[in-house]
Amino acid sequence: MKHNDSGEGRSVRLLRVGEQVRHILSDVLMRGDVHDEVLASHSVSVTEVRMSPDLKHATVFVKPLLARDEAAVLKALRTNTAYLQREVARRVNLKFAAKLKFLADESFEEGSHIDALLRRPDVARDLDADDAAAGEPDARG
């Protein structure tokens, strides 16, 4: 059987199952199926789910709305992991139920940090100089 890889080296099947798990978790959290005070009082975005190659483990990246009480939300999700795993197992047709691991999604902060770096005057000046140099014809002609 041919192994199809995406740009990041993960197979199409892993990406598809990860997206299914993401949708299920988003749905469960949005509907308030988890009976937890913290989760009931916070909107939580499930930004990405990365499946292990054997589909037995899923790393779930989450972000509370406005990044409020991120530690409390992660603790509540980890406390309710068994329930969430059962819901995922019930709705996804896999041989094994994936074990869920919840992590805070730091990609937004990383993107903001990179954006701030690129907007610094010294970096912008260097980038403008590189663009100008790239537009000049080669001296060798």
UniProtKB/TrEMBL annotation:
Q: Cytoplasm: present as a keyword of the record?
A: yes
- Superkingdom is Bacteria
Main location group = cytoplasm
- The reply to whether Phosphoprotein figures as a keyword in the UniProt entry is no
- Where does it reside? Cytoplasm
Record keywords, A-Z: Cytoplasm, Ribosome biogenesis
What SUPFAM superfamilies would the database entry show? Ribosome-binding factor A, RbfA (SSF89919)
Q: Belongs to which family?
A: Belongs to the RbfA family.
Instruction: Spell out the subunit comment.
Output: Monomer. Binds 30S ribosomal subunits, but not 50S ribosomal subunits or 70S ribosomes.
State the function annotated in the UniProt record.
Answer: One of several proteins that assist in the late maturation steps of the functional core of the 30S ribosomal subunit. Associates with free 30S ribosomal subunits (but not with 30S subunits that are part of 70S ribosomes or polysomes). Required for efficient processing of 16S rRNA. May interact with the 5'-terminal helix region of 16S rRNA.
Q: What is this protein called?
A: Ribosome-binding factor A
Give the species this sequence originates from: Sphingomonas morindae
Q: What gene does the UniProt entry assign to this protein? A: rbfA
